[in-house]
Design a protein that fits this description.
Layout (H helix, E strand, L loop, with lengths): L2 H15 L3 H14 L4 H13 L3 H14 L4 H17 L4 H21 L4 H11 L4 H14 L4 H13 L4 H14 L4 H13 L3 H14 L4 H16 L26 H20 L68
């Protein structure tokens, strides 16, 4: 590596640490134009693309760095991080997700094999393992804590594995509080603890922790706002009313209608009776004959009809399970490591 390349790579690493990704890419591009196989420049270019969410490009540059230097641990870590993110993005395609996850696990495992005492290798491996094997991830991070018990982020990763894997809520809280004891303004640990508070229903503590996260890291403000909005909406939502079984209402008794008097009928009957009487008196001299039978008025009673009403009971609705408070963000994974990869630059050469 020439003096120019050595200095430009070192400057690019500082620019990435400061968040000036475009300026870092410009310097690394100049180095690669003169030396396309510069493994340090390729690795840092891959890390710069990772920082801006261009994971496919990150995979390409880190793979190129490994082609030039197969056992380059920093390039293996960048490759594992990028493949892990691609696996999360392919959550609806199980085959594609598994392909990226297997590559991430292979790169993280190889990096840990090359230097099993370097806790950054173990932390990354535990983060990848936590997606499918929380028990293995917990064993890996415990080994890292044995090596460096005062590393705050190792305790944060342990708490995250315990919480997200559903292994132990008290253990998760203890690990996260230990991380905050070692580093009181640890943003990731504060966020994990706030989410843990929301999981167990302590909305006040969870909201307070998330507001601290937004204050310390404004880039997470959107996540915090979305999560707090979901919590507020859940708090306002009234539970479904629970209906108990009620007996059916008493059956209504339908009585037949009372017939109304028909004056026309009665008038006709009276008039007919008068006519009959006159005929009797006028025919008194006639031979005696038995009188005709006297018609008797009749009344109509309608036949009662059974009502069509059939009483039925009230059935309670099917109760829906009470939803949990799930923050609206991508999901089940340990937050990506934001610390830059370790770069070992060769000594200055003339």
């Amino acid at each position: 590596m020439t003096t120019f390349a050595h200095d430009e790579v070192a400057r690019a690493k500082v620019l990435i640490d400061l968040g000036r990704i475009d300026a870092a890419r410009a310097k690394l591009g100049a180095v690669l134009a003169a030396d396309p196989d510069n493994a340090d420049a390729l690795m840092l270019m891959g890390y710069a693309w990772f920082r801006t969410g261009e994971y496919e490009k990150s995979v390409g540059y880190s793979a190129a760095a490994l082609a030039a230097f197969p056992d380059y641990q920093s390039a293996l870590r960048v490759l594992a991080l990028a493949e892990q993110e691609l696996a999360h993005l392919a959550e609806h395609d199980s085959a594609e997700r598994k392909r990226h996850y297997d590559r991430a696990l292979a790169a993280a495992t190889r990096s840990a094999e090359l230097d099993p005492e370097y806790v950054e290798n173990l932390r990354l491996l535990a983060g990848v393992q936590s997606a499918t094997d929380p028990a293995a991830a917990l064993a890996t991070i415990d080994r890292a804590i044995e090596i460096d018990p005062d590393h705050a982020d190792l305790h944060r990763v342990r708490g995250s594995i315990l919480r997200r894997g559903g292994i132990s809520v008290p253990g998760a809280e203890a690990a996260l509080r230990e991380a905050l004891r070692l580093q009181p303004e640890h943003v990731d640990a504060t966020q994990e603890l706030a989410l843990l508070d929301l999981d167990r229903g302590d909305l006040e503590a969870g909201e307070r922790g998330l507001r601290l996260v937004a204050q310390w890291d404004p880039s997470r403000a959107d996540f915090v706002r979305a999560t707090l909005a979901a919590v507020e909406a859940e708090a306002r939502r009234e539970p479904e009313p629970v209906f108990t079984h009620m007996p059916p209402p008493p059956q209504v008794r339908y009585l037949p209608e009372t017939p109304r008097s028909n004056w026309r009928v009665w008038t006709a009957l009276v008039f007919g009776a008068i006519v009959v009487l006159r005929l009797i008196f006028t025919g008194a001299s006639a031979p005696s004959e038995p009188p005709p039978p006297r018609p008797l008025p009749s009344r109509y009673f309608p036949t009662p009809v059974a009502p069509p009403y059939l009483p039925t009971g009230l059935f309670p609705p099917t109760l829906r399970p009470w939803p949990g408070l799930t923050p609206p963000h991508a999901p089940f994974r340990t937050p990506s490591v934001t610390a830059p990869p370790r770069v070992t630059l060769p000594p200055h050469s003339p």
